[in-house]
Amino acid sequence: MAVRNDGGAPGFRSRRRKRRIAAAVIAATGLIAVVSALTRPLRNRLRIVTDVFSVGAVRAANGLVAAAGIGLLLLARAILRGQRRAWWLALGTLGFVLMGHLLKGVDFEEALGAAAAIVYLGVNGDAFRARSHLRAGRHALATLSLGVVGVFSGAFVALEAASSRHGHQRLGVGRGVRDALRSLGAQAPADISARLDGFVRTAVVATGAAVALVALWVSLRPVIVGVVGERQRADDEKRARSVLSVYGGGTLDYFALRDDKTYFFRGRSMISYAVYGSVCVVSPDPIGPLDERRDTWAAFRGFADDEGWIVAVLAAGQEWLDLYNSFGMLTMYVGDEAIV
Fold first, then answer.
1. Of 1, 2, 5, which Cα lies nearest the Cα of 280?
2. What whole-number distance in Å separates Cα of residue 66 and Cα of residue 96?
3. Are 282 and 250 in contact (CB under 8 A)?
4. Other beta carbons within 10 Å of 226
5. Mean pLDDT over residues 47-73, rounded?
6. How far, in Å, CA of 81 to CA of 18, rounded?
7. At what angle do helices 194-219 and 55-81 cross, to 10 degrees?
8. Lowest-confidence pick of 3-12, 147-156, 218-227, 268-277
9. Is the pLDDT reported for residue 3 higher than 50?
């Protein structure tokens, strides 16, 4: 028998429900942003914007809204896991999308949807408390920094080559960086053609957006089980054997001592598990006295929820199904145990 997570006890169920709704709302908002960026705004609304901002700024806002929409689609999965970092990033991205919708064509309807998503996330912030991988933030910053350097280096080389081809003097580092930045705005650098400026502008925006999305993906890695020292591992195994010798009795309980397992202890009970990606697989059933079953499982579910893991139980025993089901888990029949 295998059991997978689909909620939890009352507190877990409420958080899971909020996360599912938030993930759906964010994914829908991201998809709407991408579609909106690919469609032309209404002329009368666009005229309002171009009277205040330059055409280049409007175009840049359109492209950035599309990139932010893709970012929201990536964030939806981490939001479903309840990661706190994803919650903060989603709030910031939604605010950016809201302003972008207004800037690129006074799209009140899309902006209103983004505002509603911000309100929902803000009101239900308590449901998003799961941690992210400790080093993921640093890896994301390193990826973003190297990407920015690479993007502007490429733009500088393209502008320098175009300037030399047309017989102009070399731009130099300072002027080249300035022209690369100006190519993102409404005014093209004087030393290159409008066609090349459009190419550089598009390449820099597209590549920069891709780098930002990769950095975003890296920053949202779920928590992984850290390497345990040999002494701590030996102590845990000794304690696990002690619990198993007193309370073990199931035909599968011995597999709790496999060397790929990590242990969760509470009172006189233990739970052996392994984490694969963001899925925490428990096998066999928790081992301990009967009177600690519910408290031990509730504590473990809280621990796994704080780590942003999806909990699954492999080869669950019949006597545990009522407890698992009371925590909102779904039972899937995959066969019976046989002793030959």
1. 5
2. 11
3. no
4. 8
5. 71
6. 11
7. 20
8. 3-12
9. no
Q: How far apart are CA 237 and CA 102, in angstroms?
A: 59
On whether the CB atoms of residues 62 and 150 are closer than 8 A, the answer is: no
3-class DSSP assignment, residue 39? coil
Q: Which of 270, 284, 271, 269 is nearest to 317 (CA)?
A: 284
Query: Two tokens at 66?
Result: 């599309």
Of residues 92 and 109, the one with the higher pLDDT is 92
Residue 233 CA, chain-centre distance (Å), reads: 31
Do you find a cis peptide bond into 284, omega within 30 degrees of 0? yes
pLDDT, average across residues 329-336: 81
What is the average pLDDT across 150-168?
62
Residue 18 neighbours by CB under 8 Å, 6+ apart = 124, 127
Instruction: List the 269-276 sheet strands across, edge first.
Output: 262-266, 269-276, 279-282, 310-313, 2-4, 330-332
- How much is the average pLDDT of 157-164? 62
User: What 3-state DSSP class applies to 41?
Assistant: coil
Q: So what's the pLDDT on residue 123?
A: 92
Rounded distance between C-alpha atoms, residue 11 and residue 24, angstroms: 20
> Who contacts 256 (Cβ-Cβ below 8 Å, separation ≥6)?
240, 244, 248, 270, 272, 283, 284, 287
- Tokens 């090349």, residue? 196
Virtual torsion, Cα 192, 194, 199, 203, nearest 10 deg: 80
